[in-house]
Amino acid sequence: MNLYCNAHAFFFRHETVNIHTHDKPEWFAQKVNPLGKVPVIQLDDKIVFDSKIVNGYLDATYPGPKVVPSDPFLAAQGQMILELWERVSYPH
Predict the structure, then answer these.
(1) pLDDT, tens digit, for every residue of 18-70?
(2) CA distances from 53 to 25, 26, 29, 47, 74 (A)
(3) What are the structural domains of the chain?
(4) Cα 73 to Cα 35: distance, rounded to the nearest angstrom
(5) Structure pTM?
(6) Of 36, 37, 68, 72, which is least surrounded by CB within 10 A?
(7) CA-CA distance, 14 to 24, in Å (whole number)?
(8) Under a CB-based contact definition with an 8 Å cutoff, are residues 48 and 40 in contact?
(9) Element (H, E) at 68
(10) Residues with Cβ < 8 Å from 4, sequence gap 6 or more?
């Protein structure tokens, strides 16, 4: 997400808040993401979480380079990589 935000800094101001993935502050799950996962973006009073959802939201909202490729196979590959990453990072 940080790379995407840096690439689009021309379009919006942003602040990075680092959250330790294994020692999250209590307020994070209470006020930001009830699933307790990152990444999360907040634009004014709008909060969007989950990697795939954030990527789609940013692609739909801002012009310029996209996070999700327009080629369906490349997009599917990216989603598969995200799914694998989430299963390793957040085992059930």
Answers:
(1) 888 788 888 888 888 888 888 888 888 899 998 888 888 888 888 778 888 88
(2) 23, 23, 18, 11, 17
(3) 2-89 (3.40.30.10)
(4) 29
(5) 0.68
(6) 72
(7) 21
(8) yes
(9) none
(10) 55, 58, 67
Which residues 6+ apart lie within 8 Å of 47 measured at CB? 32, 33, 40, 41
DSSP 7-66: HTTTT---------TTS--HHIIIII-TT--S-EEEETTEEEESHHHHHHHHHHHS-SS-
Tokens 């379009």 belong to which residue?
Answer: 11
Structure letter (DSSP) for residue 6: H
CA 85 centroid distance within chain: 13
Phi and psi at residue 42, to the nearest 5°: -130, 125
